[in-house]
Amino acid sequence: MVIAAVFAATRLSGNAMDYLLPPGTDAATRAAMIQHFGLDQPLWSQFFHFVRGLFNGDFGISLYERRPVADIYAERLPNTLILFAYALCFSLAVGVPLGIFAALKRGSAVGSVIMGLAFLGYATPNFVLAILMILFFSLKLHLLPSSGSATPLHFVMPALVLSALMLAEILRFTRNAMLDVMSQDYIRTARAKGMPRFSVIGKHALRNAAIPVVTIIGLQIAGMVGRCVLVEAIFATKGIGDLIVHAAIGRDYPVLQFGVIFIASLVVFTSVVIDLLYALIDPRVKVTVS
Length: 290
Known about the structure:
The chain has about 290 residues and is mostly helical.
């Protein structure tokens, strides 16, 4: 179903030759290019060759770069994975502890400040934060490069920008999950038995609050490419998100088709992994893979 929808959507988006060939191209050259890429065949025939190629591991040739699509994605994927890994690790390292602390300090000034910062992360658009960071850290302080992906320093600002919303979501979900768990009877019983506060939080509360947190982390991973699109475009990190956007604008059918299928596969794979993690966190959870 996804494969058919992707194929139809890319063909309905426009004629690739209108973007591939310069204005004024003669009809003979245009016809030769259409025939070369097999776009003169009926749609059912193009779809058959597309599906057969998928099952054979042949994802087509880029209309613009004239190279295998798999090679192009293999070059771009590491940059996206590095960027997202940095952002996710930072979001977890900061968001989970702050979420726990905000839950324990509910109603206090410190808790209010933490949640205020989280809502600020929600409200600030990525492109605004990216521009401000470039102006401050690159143009004013000359500490970090403003674009590219040659060194780890090139990923610092993109990762911080990408982590703003992720950190806010993880913080909020962790806080809410902890507040819900801390109000349960078994937590009050553990406290009444005189268990140390650290043991109550770490052994009982945090483990049972982990399922909502794992869910939001899974959603972050499933939406990895979509979250990276704007950040990759601003900082020119040359990742998959940037590649898919340019393929959509230029009607590069093979590149765009593979990109959408890759995203759909990532969502399905992430859902299965989350289900398995549920069972590890709480054996009472039944895993069903559909």
